[in-house]
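Q: What would this chain look like folded?
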Amino acid sequence: MSPTNRTVVVTGIGATTPLGGDAASTWEGLLAGRSGVKPLEGERFAELPVRIAALAAVDPGDVLPRPLARKLDRSAQFALIAAREAWADAGYTDKAGEDEKIQPNRLGAVIASGIGGVTTLLDQYDVLKEKGVRRVSPHTVPMLMPNGPSANVGLEVNAQAGVHTPVSACASGAEAIGYAVEMIRTGRADVVVAGGTEAAIHPLPIAAFANMMAMSKSNDEPEKASRPYDTGRDGFVLGEGAGVVILESAEHAAARGARVYCEVVGQGLSADAHHIAQPEPTGRGIAVAMQNLLDDTGLKLAEIVHLNAHATSTPQGDIAEIKALRKVLGDDLDHVAVSATKSMTGHLLGGAGGIETVATVLALHHRTAPPTINIDDLDADVDADIVRGEPRALPEGTIAAINNSFGFGGHNVVLAFRSV
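A: My prediction, written as structure tokens:
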């Protein structure tokens, strides 16, 4: 098929998160303002400076058959569960080729992870030290590969148009969705399974993030630890899970009579070129990504009524994002309802963009912005309309929403969606 600039739509969603084992229960938890952060139990976490995390509400081992689960890293388990839900939600009943609505060479998969199979790597090293060479699992390499989740999802649905794994730290999931959009727009695929996953709740990553002073140490009040925009915020809370969407050309979706959640307007990308971990304090790079989105898509500022912010609950990062929003949107920021869903899910690193895309799609579909919780004392530098306490109804008519994702290394990804 020759390259085109085709309209891309969302036809399916799937998720497994600290708030629920599927997209519906996750959305219910977001609207209810429920925190998924809990104490970490067990001796191996006892001496850590951070002993809280947002564990998945449903363990993937309780969902997947044991013979399959034991061959997959936890990150791939989450990705497969979310992808299966999204695939069914889009109306597909079997893998490509066997379901005649999509052929294998017109189907792609782009599932990202910021860290990959880190728990497999660390656990199998412990096996090597404690039990010897012969006890190391022969599945270790396929399990620890960062492309393992995408590869396994691709195998599940028989995707042959391309299976990819962007890795850009906490922007990975959003970058995967943006890459998938381009696959469809340029004619490489008609349908792409896209999103992000992460499973890094292990003593070593937690100790490393804690020693960087990046994580909250509010161990005594776990449910209040993730508090974007609050003056008392002291870092992010690590979460786990996956969020996946089915992206499809509008023509392909219409031809098979698919239900459409929303249109994907496009993406804006940039890099800070500032620091390997710290955000650029003025939000310069974020502003460039947002302006690129507006310039490339023609999205009108008056259309934008909702934004799912990156807002990890770090002192510098939260403010840099707000500064960028005000710089680009100007007075139009005043009519944008800003939600920071990491206040409930924690920060899923490379999975964040996937889950927050699901939340953004559902916010448009239901015309409801979820609340941000744990704001007792709003930072005076937060010059934006933050949805607090209760969900907020979004306007009728044609509206648009933005999902922001940023990552260590200065990666900035801004995705935009429009109601249908």
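The chain has a mean pLDDT of 97.
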